[in-house]
Design brief:
mainly alpha, about 450 residues
């Protein structure tokens, strides 16, 4: 008859991690001043706690969490030794930092990344690169682009030395996003193209960073007139976001496809994409994106001549942006509403909306939005027959666009002034809304944000 294994042999056959867990559990229980019976109560027996501490039973995840809470300790302290626990803590801190919105949570993100660097000094290369990426994202959100690029270059160099292709791709993606935010689309494209390829090689193609890079690349292609490339980038982003169930990113990709369709002068297809984008963003509760996407859809309906639909969509967009506290966005949407009301020959309402848009822009310090509101209000004044006021305000808008470096806005203001200089209004001209010069209509839809 075979002999039963000795206690020593049975203990040796148990997994090392299980024995270590039992030891850490016993130490934590003693530090908490609890008996085995007190720790187990009310749903776990004293004998079961004894089995766990001696490494003779396997705990479920729910049990580990419950025991950690009862001893007022962390799950990590039960699962890891001090050295491994520091690594796990640093990873958790960096994960939380990366998950924060760098615009509204930038200070907290920096504190978390700094804490990770203190918990485990020096950080392993991959974690150090992640900490620097957090810092770079916050700098971009703060508009400190030069400093952000320096940090991004440090990340890229570190990633190249240690062959961290995934992180290298993320760094290049952030560099491309930074260039795009600075308006340097030509510099953004090669960085984003390289980032997309490197993330694919680094097995990080199915990540949110990769989808954001594709969306940014699609926007950059639109800016340079490469519409077919833009369509492919947005389509790939949409497919990936759909598989990942990332609704907000899927909404942005659909929005981008709408922009491409509009640029190709396919308004019905553009509207269909934008409506799907709005649906996806609403499901994702992406309030900031939702307000902007609704505004884009309203602009499209306006240029289709569907003024009633445009007004309804833009009023909905305004409600979302007011709820979200987006002052520059409110000014933009109010300005669009004023344009629609002017097209509907509701001049008094249009004037009120345009003046409100101007006040919102001035309060937010948004120079471009302020200039645009001046342009729209000047058009309304012209339609009301207040010609000299309209000309003076349009000249102010032209100067403001030039100061802000907004060439397209300056061209629009200049085109209106040329049109008005041709002579006084013909009899009955003020009975209809003042027309937009053909050379500046329709205006392009805003591309979706890629996010940082």
């Amino acid at each position: 008859m075979p002999q039963s294994p000795t206690p020593t042999a049975a203990r040796t056959n148990r997994p090392g991690w299980l024995l270590q867990f039992g030891r850490r559990l016993m130490l934590a229980r003693n530090r908490a001043g609890l008996t085995q019976q007190a720790l187990g109560a009310p749903d776990l027996s004293k004998s079961f706690i004894s089995l766990l501490e001696s490494g003779r039973s396997y705990p479920s995840l729910e049990t580990v969490i419950a025991l950690a809470r009862r001893m007022r300790t962390s799950v990590g302290s039960l699962l890891f030794d001090p050295a491994d626990l520091r690594l796990e803590t640093a990873l958790n801190l960096l994960h939380m930092a990366a998950a924060l919105d760098p615009v509204v949570g930038g200070a907290d993100a920096l504190r978390l990344a700094g804490a990770a660097e203190q918990v485990l000094a020096p950080l392993p290369p991959a974690l150090q690169a992640q900490a620097w990426l957090v810092r770079a994202r916050v700098l971009v959100a703060q508009g400190q682009f030069d400093e952000a690029v320096r940090v991004i270059d440090d990340v890229a160099a570190l990633a190249a030395r240690h062959r961290l292709d995934g992180i290298h791709g993320r760094a290049l993606a952030l560099k491309g996003l930074t260039a795009a935010q600075r308006g340097d689309v030509k510099a953004a494209i090669p960085a984003l193209e390289q980032a997309v390829e490197m993330m694919r090689r680094g097995k990080t193609a199915r990540t949110e960073e990769h989808v954001r890079a594709l969306i940014a690349l699609g926007g950059a292609y639109v800016g340079t007139g490469q519409l077919e490339r833009s369509r492919r980038a947005y389509r790939r982003a949409m497919d990936l976001a759909t598989r990942m169930r990332a609704r907000r990113l899927r909404g942005r990709a659909l929005w981008g496809l709408g922009v491409v369709a509009w640029s190709w002068r396919h308004p019905d297809q553009a509207a269909a994409w934008l409506e799907q984008a709005v649906e996806a963003l609403q499901a994702a509760d992406g309030s900031g994106d939702l307000g902007a996407a609704l505004t884009a859809l309203g602009i499209l309906r306006y240029h289709q001549g569907r003024y009633g639909d445009a007004l309804a969509v833009l009023q909905r967009a305004l409600g979302v942006r007011e709820q979200h506290g987006d002052a520059p966005g409110r000014s933009d949407t109010l300005d669009r509403i004023a344009q629609v009301l002017l097209a509907m020959d509701r001049r008094g309402d249009a004037a009120r909306m345009a003046r409100r848009a101007l006040r919102e822009a001035q309060a937010a310090g948004a120079r471009g939005a302020e200039a645009q509101a001046q342009l729209t209000l000047a058009r309304v004044l012209r339609a009301q027959g207040r010609r000299q006021e309209a000309v003076d305000l349009m000249r102010a808008a032209l100067a403001a666009f030039k100061r802000a470096g907004l060439d397209q806005g300056a061209a629009a203001a200049s085109a209106h002034l040329v049109l008005w200089a041709r002579g006084p209004a013909a009899p009955g001209e003020t009975k209809t809304a003042e027309a937009v010069p053909a050379q500046i209509a329709p205006d392009p839809l805003l591309s979706p944000p890629a996010g940082i």
